[in-house]
Amino acid sequence: MNTFELPQYVSADRPLGPDGLEEALRDIGARRYHILHPFHRLLHDGALNKGQVQAWALNRYCYQAHIPKKDALLMARLPSVGLRREWRRRIVDHDGEDEGEGARGGDDGGIERWLRLTTGLGLDRDYVRDMVGILPATRFAVEAYVHFVAEKPLLEAIASSLTELFSPKIISERVSGMLANYDFVDAETLAYFNKRLTQAPRDSDFALNYVREHAVRPDQQQAVLDALTFKCNVLWAQLDALHSAYVAPGLIPPGAYQP
Asked: Contact, 177 vs 45, CB < 8 A?
């Protein structure tokens, strides 16, 4: 079997049990999560120059900045106070609760911490925040994810967040690899990732339990598997764009960031 060819997980007349569904979800991550992408390997192994790392951080900001927007769209559709309260934590995690830019005390949020990462890499804060140098494919992939969450049934929208099941491993590799291989980053530059090591498992546990409980029919189960596959493709496409523009063949689109 081709390693990129997914097996048939769900039959039309026999739904999976909750454990079987979770196993299928995790298998999709093992096959399709962007930890396998060549650009990820170059980034973590210290094979990129500073300009290429800057391009990664800049384009990743586009994704980070849109996460609370897609979460707000999803939260508005949740039917109960308890579910909305649970999902609201995701928005606070990214937007923070402190007033003002660059706040160091309290909870300044993931977006602010990512801006400190890009500033630490030598990028102008306003340039990053305005996203004028983002690759077109990055923007299209991120906007496709926001539209997916807004338009698909709630179960599929929640399932699309399950890439967080796999993020602790990629975060650990990213931090250890970058600290070991790049003299232009330090622990403070990469501080964004510290909180994600606890936030992502908390969020994925909630989403996974929701999917296990509510995806009971074969069509529902296939839909959530497709939703996770779509999200993996969104993340993969962003690294495809970075690799094409800044590694090989090195064709940077007009208007995109020039290291």
From this structure: yes
- The Cα 78–Cα 107 span in angstroms is 25
User: pLDDT tens digit string along 59-93?
Assistant: 999 999 999 999 999 999 999 999 999 999 999 99
| Token pair listed for 259 | 């290291």
The structure tokens listed for 12 are: 């039309």
CB 48 within 8 A of CB 183: no
Would you list the domain boundaries of the chain?
Answer: 18-32+49-246
Q: Could you report the per-residue pLDDT of 168-192, keeping only the tens digit for each?
A: 999 999 999 999 999 999 999 999 9
Q: Give the contacts of 232 (CB within 8 A, at least 6 positions apart).
A: 28, 29, 32, 33, 34, 163
Q: Give the separation between CA 43 and CA 174, rounded to whole angstroms.
A: 8
Give the integer Cα–Cα distance in Å for 122 and 22: 42
| Tally of residues, the chain | 259
Tell me the CATH number of domain 18-32+49-246, given options 3.40.640.10, 3.20.20.210, 1.10.620.20, 1.20.910.10. Answer: 1.20.910.10
